[in-house]
């Protein structure tokens, strides 16, 4: 395993981070016992960064992760979130200070721990930026001062919003998903310079572009435009012709990005852990990678709309044919 410093914190994170959302059945039914074996295998293989949220499985992922980490808590960096709790876009978010405080107490119980290493505001594009800056993050900072959490961060999809909030309030980490992988590398231009300048830890998530960079292709609900899907399908087809797997090419590409301390991958089975760990420190075939990027080039960095309209990245698009 390879480890990188998480910003200015004293934490070091494995370059492969354990995304625990599948433990909450977010991508279909997950066997609880198999999930426990996967978590424990991950720790054995050197994965030390575990990311979860009360939203995943509507608290189920936290409960299962807490069970799986029994006796292993001191070996891991444990990250969870506040702000997003349900699937209803109108009622599923609550970024109030009162809810932040209550949420942390609930998460501590489910995770069977007395501290959270990293507390993150979840998908801040669905909240009001003024509330996030002047209420949510200050409440999280008070919990940090009280010793309930060690560090605080923000997560979301729109990069410009994440940069704006990080400039307005001091955070330890920023997590963004689908913004550094084969399809979209715009994190490097928008977030990475600020993170380097301020010592903010960068967390990269969804290196497979929410399953788009797989042989199965994206789920029906994927928000990317059809032209992006078609490019990904063509890239996957090329890899198959060359005896390679697009997911392996994508993982190697993401893991090689040194500004990101860790890249989160959803895992619920031991074979997921084994496959991802096997890719650490290995380089993609340069010629194949170049051809894949050439296929993707016409749709590179196409972003979709997410959250409140005022929080969208410039140029973000709706789904289209």
Give a concise summary.
This protein is of the alpha/beta class. It has one domain: Alpha-Beta Barrel (TIM Barrel), CATH 3.20.20. It has eleven helices and ten strands.
Main pleated sheet:
8 strands, parallel, barrel
In CATH, the homologous superfamily goes by the name NADP-dependent oxidoreductase domain
Overall structural class, as computed from helix and strand content, comes to: alpha/beta
**Whole-number radius of gyration?**
18 Å
Q: Give the termini distance in whole angstroms.
A: 41 Å
- Count every helix, treating DSSP H or I runs of 4 or more residues as helices: 11
List low-pLDDT spans: none
* General form: globular
CATH architecture: Alpha-Beta Barrel
Count of domain modules? 1
Describe the overall structure.
The chain is an alpha/beta fold. It has a single domain, classed as TIM Barrel, CATH 3.20.20. The chain has an eight-stranded parallel beta barrel with strand order 3-4-5-6-7-8-9-10, surrounded by five helices. Helix 1 packs across helix 2 and helix 8 runs antiparallel to helix 11. The relative contact order is 0.15.
Topology, pairings included?
Elements: E1 3-5, E2 12-14, E3 16-19, H1 32-44, E4 49-51, H2 60-68, E5 77-82, H3 97-111, E6 116-121, H4 129-145, E7 149-156, H5 159-168, E8 173-177, H6 187-190, H7 192-198, E9 201-205, H8 226-241, H9 246-255, E10 260-266, H10 270-278, H11 286-296
Parallel strand pairs: 3-4, 3-10, 4-5, 5-6, 6-7, 7-8, 8-9, 9-10
Antiparallel strand pairs: 1-2
Helix pairs in contact: 1-2, 1-10, 3-4, 8-11
